[in-house]
Design brief:
There is one protein chain. Helices cover 12% and strands 41% of the residues. It is flat. A hairpin with a 2-residue loop joins β3 and β4. The protein has 668 residues and is mostly beta strands. Among the domains are: 37 residues; 71 residues, Immunoglobulin-like, CATH 2.60.40; 69 residues, Carboxypeptidase-like, regulatory domain (Immunoglobulin-like); 70 residues, Carboxypeptidase-like, regulatory domain (Immunoglobulin-like, Sandwich); 64 residues, no CATH class; 65 residues, Immunoglobulin-like (Sandwich), CATH 2.60.40.
């Protein structure tokens, strides 16, 4: 083979090797590209708001990634995407690995428009308004606003307001200048008196009334006249108040007066108003004034004065003592105090300064009388007094019926005499009902009903039947403590004395609440409002009238040891208070329903023969207390008689109580 042919074949082999290498290189590149494409992450990018998205420019600011047609093709982690749009602030967004493949939003913030408005030739603050709302007071307006249309208004008191509308786009920077026109107005002046001198802003006004046309602004006014107090004023004309009217009235210069008065301690008045002596007082000139000085016991003096402008005058008053006489009598004779000092016993005649004095006429056991009387000079007055006992005064003021703080109706009684107990010949009489003559002298109040559970509950809960039922199962001491509690509640002195819960006695002079005495209870049921004393509340006949009260009737057969045959009251046991009609005294349930605790200790000692007991309250000590009256369980003749005397050491379901109280502390 020739050398040329060998060279040609050698060259062909090199070419085939080159082509083979190039093919292998291309194939490797394709393998790398395919592998890289498989590792690329595609993340959709969304720009908000929609107004920004239309013109947004999105680019990759950091990382190996490509943005194309709304999607980001990233070849590395944590690429940074930047978005821009006209009228919006640029924003960057780091794409986290967890966000790759999901839609990522880039929110652009809208750029505000900047508006600056000034006013030509104005250095004073302007009142600026945007769309009718005040925003600032300054020489110029600078504001950042959202895109939109705005009405800008500039105001100054001395210029006509100017308004202009601006249509602002995002990111706009607008500057503008407004020109305000000076406002004008009129000032009208009138002056009294007419010949007063008027200076307006430094220039004399020669013709009045005056009408001055001028630019808006502040102007000084001075009005003067000899003998008159000057007037200095400032008037202001604005675009809102273009017409100003002033009617000046000069006041004459004041006058002065100094008043001295003797003796001291009286009342000095100027036109009826109190003033102080020895002080310089300012008065209006050419006006009438009336000065008056008066002192008790000295009479008075008056002066009329009229002063000239700038005049100073001294006025003096000098009063002399005046004497009056009073003759004082009283029935019965009593002690007299005058102005807090002892004056003697009535009848009494005294001479005193002719003024008002306080007279106090008093006598032990009688209501003190206080009188105020003015004595006249050289005249004789009389003071005649009839004294009343304290009991008479309190009785005169006492109401026949009143309602206390718990709503109880309290009725007033004037007691008389009676005979307690019953003779041995009376059917049903018991040995403890010995006869006793009693004289009751003290007026007293009695509750119209027995105390109810509802009335007792504020003191202590005893709810068994209901608010309208009489409270029972109450011991005598509990009833007495309730009386004291109610007395203190109403500001009355307690009747009973307790020491640490232990009963210690009572105060017979107290007007506080208490239990009825045995004598009072029996007087109410047998003698009060009756022509004579009776055995029963209705009379002397043992037959019980229909509807008299709640006792052991036919319905109690089998429930109580005894019952009253043929009598029906409609209640097998205790009934609500006032279920039966009032008795002659206007009281309910003195006969029947529940027996009632009375004040007295139980005693079996008869009084001495011929003794009359006066307002008896029983002994000061004992074991048991008395209760009086029949109850719903009473079915014998002995028990239904008011003379019946029961004793107990504790409460039961058959015993309640009612209230009483004296109206004065001492017997007649």
């Amino acid at each position: 083979m020739s050398e040329f042919k060998q060279q040609i074949e050698k060259a062909a082999r090199r070419q085939r090797l080159f082509m083979l290498g190039f093919a292998l290189l291309g194939f490797g590149f394709l393998l790398v590209f395919a592998g890289g494409f498989l590792l690329t992450k595609v993340t959709p990018i969304q720009v908000t708001p929609s107004e920004a998205a239309r013109d947004a420019d999105v680019s990759v600011s950091k990382g190996l990634a490509v943005y194309f047609q709304g999607s980001l093709f990233s070849f590395s982690r944590y690429p940074v995407v930047e978005a821009r749009a006209p009228g919006f602030a640029a924003a960057e967004r780091v794409i986290e690995p967890a966000e790759e493949g999901s839609t990522v939003q880039i929110a652009l913030r809208e750029l505000p428009a900047e508006l600056r408005v000034t006013v030509t030739n104005m250095e004073e603050p302007i009142n600026w308004f945007i769309n009718g709302s005040p925003v600032s007071t300054a020489p110029s307006l600078t504001a950042e606003l959202k895109a939109g249309t705005y009405l800008i208004r500039a105001e100054h008191p001395y210029f006509r307001p100017e308004e202009k509308e601006y249509d602002l786009a995002r990111g706009d920077q607008v500057e503008d200048v407004l020109t305000l026109e000076r406002a004008s107005g009129v000032v009208r002046l009138e002056v009294t008196p007419k010949d007063a001198a008027v200076i307006f802003n430094g220039v004399a006004v020669t013709e009045l009334p005056a009408e001055i046309e001028l630019e808006a602004g502040k102007y000084e006014v001075s009005v003067t006249k000899d003998g008159y107090a000057p007037i200095e004023d400032v008037v202001e004309v604005t675009y809102q108040q273009s017409e100003v009217t002033r009617n000046y009235r000069l006041q004459m210069n004041p006058a002065y007066v100094t008043v001295s008065a003797s003796p001291a301690g009286g009342r000095l008045t100027l036109n009826g108003k109190s003033i102080s002596a020895d002080k310089r007082l300012q008065l209006s000139a050419s006006q009438k004034y009336y000065l008056r000085y008066a002192k008790d016991g000295y009479g008075f003096q008056e002066q009329e004065i009229t002063l000239k402008p700038d005049e100073t005058r001294k006025v003096s008053f000098d009063l002399s003592l005046k004497i009056g006489e009073v003759q004082i009598t009283s029935d019965p004779p009593a002690t007299v105090m005058i102005d807090g000092q002892p004056a003697g016993e009535t009848p009494l005649t005294v001479r005193l300064p002719a003024k008002t004095h306080e007279f106090v006429i008093s006598r032990p056991g009688y209501q003190t009388v206080r009188k105020t009387m003015a004595l006249d000079a050289d005249a004789v007055r009389r003071l005649d007094v009839i004294l009343q006992t304290e009991e008479e005064v309190k009785l005169a003021a006492a109401k026949p019926v009143y309602s206390n703080s718990l709503g109880m109706e309290m009725r007033l009684f004037e007691p008389t005499s009676l005979t307690l107990g019953a003779p041995r010949s009376e059917k049903g009489q018991r040995a403890n009902e010995f006869l006793r003559d009693v004289q009751l002298t003290r007026h007293f109040y009695v509750s119209a009903t027995e105390v109810t559970e509802g009335q007792f509950s504020p003191f202590e809960s005893k709810q068994n039947k209901g608010d309208t039922y009489p409270v029972t199962n109450v011991s005598w001491a509990e009833a007495a403590r309730f009386c004291n509690w109610l007395s203190e509640k109403e500001g009355l002195p307690p009747f009973y004395r307790f020491n640490g819960g232990r009963y210690q006695g009572f105060n017979a002079q107290s007007t506080g609440y208490r239990l009825l005495s045995e004598a009072e209870w029996e007087w109410l049921t047998r003698k009060a409002n009756r022509s004579r004393q009776t055995i029963f509340p209705w009379g002397d006949d043992a037959v019980i009238p229909k509807g008299s009260g709640n006792i052991a009737d036919e319905a109690a057969k089998g429930k109580t040891p005894f019952y009253v045959p043929g009598y029906t009251d409609g209640h097998a046991e205790v009934a609500p208070v006032a279920s039966f009609a009032k008795d002659k005294n206007g009281l309910h349930d003195l006969f029947g329903n529940v027996s009632e605790w009375v004040h007295d200790y139980y005693s079996l000692i008869p009084p001495p023969a011929g003794q009359v007991l006066r307002d008896p309250l029983g002994g000061s000590s004992g074991e048991n207390h008395l209760y009086k009256g029949a109850s719903w369980a009473s079915g014998t003749l002995s028990e239904i008689r008011p003379a019946y005397r029961g004793s107990a050491s504790q409460g039961s379901d058959k015993i309640g109580f009612r209230l009483a109280r004296y109206i004065y502390g001492e017997a007649k």
